[in-house]
Amino acid sequence: MKIDPRHLAQLAAILEAGSFQAAADELGLTQPALSRNMRMLEARLDAPIFERSGKRSLPTALGRRLARSGLAIRAAEEQAGVQASLWAEGRRGELRLGAPPIVSGRFLTKAISRFLVAHPSWTLDLQVGLVPELQAMLARGRIDLLIGPQSLVDQEARLDFEPLIDDRIGVLCRADHPLTRIDRLTARHLETQSWLVHSRGSLLRQQTEAALLAAGLEKIRIGCEAGATGSALEIVAATDLLTAMPVAMTCPYLEGRLTFLSFDHPLFRRPIGIMRRRGSVLDSGAQWLVEHLRDTA
């Protein structure tokens, strides 16, 4: 049986107010309109919800039971109204972010921490993954902002990019690696080494391989494949393996154990910025984070 929830909420208001007229005044209805709605509810139930007692209408047992459901509906409506007001005023909301692993580390977590301090009533959902997956999530509206490399932007997906940091990929190794003692590194030096590479499908891996091949490496000797940034850094710090990492994003993790070699190529350029859906309107929380990233980049 389908019952109009508005009628249940009105029934609860009648019991709370003590009379049809008082409830009608509270609900912004006329007393005849409210009485008509209660008759419609009784017809739907095929059972009385009020009984006459002198000049008063008293609820039946069924009426009292249904009024409890009506109270729950009214409470839910009031709570929804409060939540909507808080969201409209920017005092409560949800921010959905996406970022690839290296960007979601210390660079982004500092901004997230400051956001949560400034917006204690907000929730923040951070999605970490491979950049093609994040791009698809942004295009479909499953996240609000994506912080990542410019090469992630696909014009067909209608994404706009705002640069923050002019980052680049660097060749990373342990601090006392033999290659650190060579003044002029060439592609031949790198070709003799084994590499730790990122996950298949990773945009960082694709860009690195394209740049190294363009720099003159005939092949890349793969010694290890790792998807987790933390694991990759620990392995490189303890072995002779080389890897590729975005320089600005990785510098906080060097800690004297790791260093970047003096080897560069134009295809290593990898600006980091903010991506959003073209034409989208940011709410107050997302706008706050964007402005904070602009100021601190």
From TrEMBL:
The name this protein carries in UniProt is HTH lysR-type domain-containing protein
Q: Which GO terms describe its molecular function?
A: DNA binding; DNA-binding transcription factor activity
Which Pfam families does the UniProt record give?
HTH_1 (PF00126), LysR_substrate (PF03466)
Record-annotated membrane-spanning stretches:
none
CDD domains documented for this protein: PBP2_LTTR_substrate
Q: Where in the numbering of this chain does the HTH lysR-type domain appear?
A: 3-60
Q: What GO cellular component entries does it have?
A: cytosol
Its family remark reads: Belongs to the LysR transcriptional regulatory family.
Q: Which InterPro entries match?
A: HTH-type_LysR_regulators, LysR_HTH_N, LysR_subst-bd, WH-like_DNA-bd_sf, WH_DNA-bd_sf
Q: Which UniProt keywords apply?
A: DNA-binding, Transcription, Transcription regulation
